[in-house]
Amino acid sequence: MALFSQLGNYRNAGLFIMRTGIGAMMIFHGLPKIAHPEKWAGLGEAMGSLHIHFWPTFWGFVAALTETVGGLFSILGLWFRLVSLFMIFLFMVASLHHFNTGGDLGEASHAIELGFVYIGFLFLGPGKFSVDKG
Length: 134
Description:
Elements: H1 11-34, H2 40-44, H3 56-76, H4 80-100, H5 105-124
Helix pairs in contact: 1-3, 3-4, 4-5
InterPro entries: DoxX, DoxX-like_oxidoreductase
Keywords: Cell membrane, Membrane, Transmembrane, Transmembrane helix
GO cellular component, one term: plasma membrane
């Protein structure tokens, strides 16, 4: 369609908008988790889905930190592909946790969707509007 034929010229802008929006939502969801250390152990118990049952508080802190700092780095485009790998792992564990605790696809869908977003980001890279310019 001729109306949209020139939008391909703005791929980097589109990627920046996606990075910024998704990154902001990661910070929005991650800040309350990192701000409440008493919840870290419960969050870290999701690693039990991978049969890792030691140090749940540590894993909960790592998950909260990954979500929060990963969101910031997503916005900046800093270490973007590495952040994408961490986020993919985070959402894989979250998805498995939903299924292993009796949840259905509806409960796991948000984590699965974001996992796919970060898989796409892994392939695309941050675009030219990033700190790393990678």
